[in-house]
């Protein structure tokens, strides 16, 4: 059984050896040597080899004839092959000889092909490198010409397009390394130019503002058809707005478009030469290209926010410097003009930047700057204008502020606060005018001779009537020479009033006020002039020392004529303001009351002066209060009283030009003052004794006064009205000189009493003085019966008077 398995295994191994590649026979043989029957396998193998040899021999025997035939044919073929070989060798020789030329040509062709390929490659590389070199050369040229924005664009194109196409070359690497440095150089150079620009416009803001203000002034002076256009269409802004309305593009200079060159981005739009009637804008004086260039550069670099913040910060600092006025600005108009020119120049630049750039400054930023500026301008003007005391300078300042406001309003800035401030300054202007006119009125009063104006020719008369509206037909009929009733003071004051009104009108011009508002302002100022300044001057002239009665009389005449001219002043104001005087809200002039008050003050001063003069005469009175009664003949009036009456007659003779009531009041006041003074003289406590002789002398003086009153020194009194001034004194003296006490005591208190004006107190005081005189007259009086009886009578009357007084008091 085991031998069968071994034989089967050996058979399998043999088949495997026959069918397996000789390279893989090792494992098979190894399995034989691993077994115990390798000898038996060798025998088996030899037997298999002998079998194959027998099969090979059989096959060879079967095919031998065919092999012989093949060898025979092969021998025949060898001859032919030798012949063919010779032919091929010969042919090859000929071919080799002929191919040498071809090979040489082919090698030359190959070399040409290689050269062509190298040339094509070189051309391709150069086509990518040349633009880089050309662009870099252009970049260097642009940097040399300081055209930094195009240089930055070239740099961007070089970095993003040309260098990647050129490949990795050393010069490309060097260029790529230099690009950030060039960017930094361009950025720093642009910022340097911007700083130079900011410094330049800071220095030239005054010139820019001066040009803008001059342009606004020319705009105001144009004819009505041009001035009827909106005030905003001034200079550059007007042209740009007009172009916007017609659809024309104006953003060529802004950062929104790519400017053709740096010059295009910085030059302002100047009108064509054909438009001769266009005034170039003030901003045309400035080259804004550094701003635009720097803005474009920082925008391309992605640093626009940094640039905007820096620009606004620097301009805010410049605004603070511009808005700081000089300490002595108020001294001259030129100081104000330079201050306004700088501010206008600053905001003209900002307005131009606002309208030619997109977002560098916006409307909110400019309005914020203007609000800051407006508050500081108003504060500065309020402070510095308060130092000014020259009305001409204030008026020039007002005109300058109006021009300043109109200029900035033309650029769209709100200026209502400036006009409100002008109304405040107008109050100050009014006070300054009042001070100047106070001096003018004082000079007129000091230079006036207070006498009627003599006119000898028609020309002189017309001259004065042209200065003052005199309405007196009777005076015109009088022949020359003649006198005007008033003095030089009247026409001069009237002309000064008109000049004051003109001065007020000048300030009200160009303030955008209605005619009614102007009229109201002028009338209020004129009222202040009349009620405060002129009234004070008139009272000063009236109360001044050494003013005579003639001067006071002339003041009354002058104020009367000035009062009559108030209606002409009303018409004058209405004519220059075109406001009817009969408007419901029209302010009325207080001139009538002013001149009435002055006239009343002059009248009172006349009364006071006359009374003071009367007092001076009365101080000369030298009565002998103890004189005895003169026997026979009439008692003559005292010398001082005669002089006093003569003075009053001469005084009242010059009152003919005064209103009748004034002269009558003055005369009545003088008579009352004389009567009162004589009564006080009688009752003077220092005079303790009065004799009957003294009373007779005083009675004679009173009669002299009554004669003066009856003579009618002033016309207009009815009957004996003027005598009533002496009635108290007359009744008292009659009571004593006639010694009519029985009648007095019997009729006291009755309306029909003869001595109705005699006061019992006054009579008692006078009786006691007479009692002292009788008692001390002489030591022998008590031995004379007549004197004793008179003394008893006086005592009785005194007692009765005391009882009367006591009863009346009860």
TrEMBL record:
Keyword Cytoplasm: no
Top-rank taxon: Eukaryota
Domain Exocyst complex subunit EXOC6/Sec15 C-terminal stretches: 417-769
Chain spans, region Disordered: 215-266
GO cellular component terms, semicolon-separated: exocyst; plasma membrane
Keywords: Exocytosis, Transport
InterPro entries xrefs: EXOC6/Sec15, EXOC6/Sec15_C, EXOC6/Sec15_C_dom1, EXOC6_Sec15_N, EXOC6PINT-1/Sec15/Tip20_C_dom2
GO biological process: one example: intracellular protein transport
The Exocyst complex component EXOC6/Sec15 N-terminal domain, residue ranges: 44-213
Biased composition range(s): Polar residues: 215-228
Keyword check for Transport: yes
Known role: Component of the exocyst complex involved in the docking of exocytic vesicles with fusion sites on the plasma membrane.
PANTHER family referenced in this protein's UniProt entry, alphabetically: EXOCYST COMPLEX COMPONENT 6B, SEC15
Family according to the record: Belongs to the SEC15 family.
Protein name, per record: Exocyst complex component
Lineage, uppermost ranks: Eukaryota, Metazoa, Chordata, Craniata, Vertebrata
């Amino acid at each position: 059984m085991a031998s069968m398995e071994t034989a089967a295994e050996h058979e399998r191994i043999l088949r495997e050896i026959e069918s397996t590649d000789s390279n893989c026979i090792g494992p098979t043989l190894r399995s034989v040597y691993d077994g115990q029957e390798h000898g038996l396998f060798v025998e088996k193998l030899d037997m298999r080899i002998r079998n194959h040899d027998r099969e090979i021999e059989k096959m060879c025997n079967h095919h031998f004839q065919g092999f012989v035939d093949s060898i025979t044919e092969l021998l025949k073929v060898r001859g032919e092959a030798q012949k063919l070989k010779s032919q091929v060798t010969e042919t090859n020789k000929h071919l080799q000889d002929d191919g040498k030329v071809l090979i040489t040509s082919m090698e030359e062709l190959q070399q040409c092909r290689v050269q062509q390929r190298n040339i094509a490659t070189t051309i391709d590389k150069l086509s990518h490198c040349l633009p880089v070199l050309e662009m870099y050369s252009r970049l260097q040229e642009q940097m040399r010409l300081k055209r930094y924005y195009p240089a930055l664009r070239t740099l961007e194109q070089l970095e993003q397009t040309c260098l990647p196409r050129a490949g990795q070359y050393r010069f490309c690497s060097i260029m790529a390394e230099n690009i950030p440095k060039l960017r930094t150089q361009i950025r720093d150079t642009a910022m340097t130019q911007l700083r130079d620009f900011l410094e330049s416009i800071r220095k030239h803001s005054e010139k820019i503002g001066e040009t803008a203000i001059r342009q606004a002034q020319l705009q105001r002076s144009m004819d009505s058809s041009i001035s009827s256009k909106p005030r905003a269409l001034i200079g550059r802004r007007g042209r740009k707005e007009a172009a916007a309305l017609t659809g024309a593009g104006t953003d060529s200079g802004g950062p929104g478009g790519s400017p053709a060159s740096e010059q295009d981005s910085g030059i302002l739009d100047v009108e064509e030469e054909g438009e001769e009637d266009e005034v170039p804008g003030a901003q045309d004086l400035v080259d804004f290209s550094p701003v635009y260039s720097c803005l474009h550069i920082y925008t391309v670099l992605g640093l626009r926010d940094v640039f905007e913040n820096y620009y606004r910060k620097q301009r805010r600092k410049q605004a603070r410097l511009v808005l700081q006025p000089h300490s002595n600005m108020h001294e001259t108009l030129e100081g104000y003009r330079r201050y306004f020119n700088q501010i206008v120049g600053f905001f003209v630049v900002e307005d131009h930047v606002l309208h030619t750039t997109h977002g560098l400054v916006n409307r909110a930023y400019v309005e914020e700057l203007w609000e800051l500026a407006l508050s500081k301008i108003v504060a500065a003007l309020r402070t510095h204008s308060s130092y000014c005391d020259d009305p001409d300078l204030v008026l020039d300042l007002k005109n300058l502020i109006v021009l300043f406001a109109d200029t900035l309003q033309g650029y769209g800035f709100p200026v209502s606060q400036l006009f409100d401030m002008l109304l405040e300054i107008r109050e100050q202007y009014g006070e300054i005018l009042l001070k100047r006119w106070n001096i003018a009125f004082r000079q007129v009063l000091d230079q006036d001779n207070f006498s009627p104006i003599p006119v000898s020719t028609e020309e002189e008369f017309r001259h004065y009537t042209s200065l003052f509206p005199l309405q007196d037909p009777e005076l015109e009929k009088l022949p020359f020479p003649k006198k005007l009733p008033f003095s030089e003071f009247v026409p001069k004051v009237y002309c000064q009033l008109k000049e004051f009104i003109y001065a007020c009108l000048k300030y009200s011009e160009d303030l955008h006020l209605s005619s009614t508002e102007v009229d109201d302002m002028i009338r209020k100022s004129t009222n202040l002039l009349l009620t405060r300044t002129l009234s004070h001057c008139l009272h000063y002239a009236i109360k001044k020392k050494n003013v005579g009665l003639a001067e006071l009389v002339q003041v009354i005449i002058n104020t009367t004529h000035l009062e009559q001219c108030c209606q002409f002043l009303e018409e004058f104001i209405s004519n220059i303001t075109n406001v009817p005087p009969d408007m419901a809200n029209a302010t009325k002039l207080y001139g009538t009351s002013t001149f009435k008050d002055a006239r009343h003050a002059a009248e009172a001063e006349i009364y006071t002066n006359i009374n003071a003069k009367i007092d001076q005469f009365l101080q000369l009175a030298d009565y002998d209060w103890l004189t005895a009664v003169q026997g026979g003949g009439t008692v003559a009036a005292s010398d001082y009283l005669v002089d006093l009456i003569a003075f009053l007659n001469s005084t009242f003779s010059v009152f003919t030009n005064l209103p009748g009531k004034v002269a009558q009041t003055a005369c009545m006041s003088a008579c009352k003052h004389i009567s009162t003074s004589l009564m006080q003289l009688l009752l003077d406590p220092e005079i303790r004794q009065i004799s009957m002789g003294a009373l007779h002398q005083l009675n004679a003086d009173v009669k002299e006064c009554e004669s003066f009153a009856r003579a009618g020194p002033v016309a207009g009194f009815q009957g004996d009205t003027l005598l009533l001034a002496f009635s108290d004194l007359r009744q008292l003296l009659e009571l004593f000189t006639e010694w009519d006490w029985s009648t007095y005591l019997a009729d006291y208190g009755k309306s029909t009493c003869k001595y109705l004006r005699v006061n019992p107190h006054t009579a008692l005081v006078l009786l006691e003085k007479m009692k002292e005189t009788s008692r001390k007259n002489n030591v022998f009086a008590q031995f004379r019966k007549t004197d004793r009886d008179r003394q008893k009578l006086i005592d009785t009357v005194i007692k009765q008077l005391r009882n009367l007084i006591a009863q009346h008091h009860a």
